[in-house]
Amino acid sequence: MTMLRREALPIIVTLGIMLGLPAVLLGYETLIRPAVSPNRIVEIHASMPQNGGFGPDVVHVNQGEAVTLRFTADDVTHGIAIGPGLGVDLGQFDPGHAAEVTLTFEQPGRYTYYCNTWCGDDHWRMRGVIDVVDPANPDAIPAPQRDPVIEALIAEGIDIDEIKRRPEHPDANTASADAGSRMIGDVTIPPQIEETAWQRTHTPQQALDMLALLNADVPKASLMNVVAYLWVRDIDPATLAQGRTLYQKNCSGCHGETGGGDGPGADLASFTPIFSMTIDTLPRRGDVLYAKIRRGGMGTGMPNWGTVFTPEETWMLVDYLWTLAFRD
After folding, report:
1. Separation CA 130–CA 186 (nearest Å)
2. Full set of structural domains in the chain with CATH
3. Helices 286-295 and 148-156: crossing angle, nearest 10°?
4. Comparing C-alpha atoms, which of 108, 150, 163, 152 is closest to residue 130?
5. Side-by-side strand order, sheet with 66-73
């Protein structure tokens, strides 16, 4: 009997450590740390949307207040980012693990924390709001942010929500910017289609039609290569890298890693354009893509990203979309 007790003692001690340590850590995080922390700590739990999403999904913060946001994944792997314009990406963390960030908001406004790792069919619903208020005027409603790009489209009478179906008889099925770069000295190019501002308010198809009028002896498929080159030639490599990161983390879940419209959420949308196909990009304007990203694809199931990305980040995404179709 004495020997059995001696053998059981290490097991009991081990079990005590194994069971007690998590309790100690939990007590520290939930009781001791908040009491001694110089700033407020907000615990936010992340679950798949069907399990409740974020809890809480609204956090109220005073202007100038330092607050620590601590996110814990409860069920599956989540990735947390906060925008717009904060540059906060906490990366992925597995169930039972946490990640945190301490922020001080100097201006009243509204920010969004969201999951950027595909976590289920309703992944796009994984969003929460940080409401930053002026304590001297807590009931003030933030002024709506104007967007000159969207305003210009509305003034022009452009239907931002129109769904551009791929043409039955496309002028080009594929295009190569690399091949187009070798043709620049052999074709006549109207100067305006080389300007970024013009490209953002016109479609590749319009540029192709203009080139065809001036280069009647050149096959349209070859001229499309020229258009492809012009559309991606001036994209800064750093901008392209940022656009790619934003796309892979936030858009590939539906549109696919290479723009093939084959992401895990593609079947949940009523229409998913294939950005890797030239025929899908021919009728698209850059400013309309910008507006669709910021406002959401009305009638398609795509959420709005204007509460997540800055206008500059949105243009980075648009630039990256062109490369999916036009880069080799």
Report:
1. 55
2. 38-133 (2.60.40.420), 148-326 (1.10.760.10)
3. 110
4. 108
5. 54-55, 40-46, 66-73, 98-104
Q: Across the 328 residues of the chain, what is the mean pLDDT of every consecutive 10-residue run?
A: 51 57 44 64 96 95 96 96 95 96 94 94 92 87 85 94 66 81 94 96 96 96 95 95 96 91 81 82 93 83 90 97 89
Q: Both tokens of residue 182?
A: 């070798």
Q: How far is CA 130 from CA 88, 184, 246, 260, in A?
A: 13, 50, 21, 34
Question: How far apart, in whole angstroms, are the C-alpha atoms of residue 196 and residue 206?
Answer: 14
Q: Map 12-54 to HEC letters.
A: HHHHHHHHHHHHHHHHHHHHHHHHHCCCEEEEEEECCHHHCCE
CA 289 to chain centroid = 14
Beta bridge partners of 92: 79
Per-residue burial over 78-100, b = 16 or more CB atoms within 10 Å of its CB, e = otherwise: bbbbbbbebeebbebbeeeebbe
Q: In whole angstroms, give the CA distance from residue 273 to residue 296.
A: 14
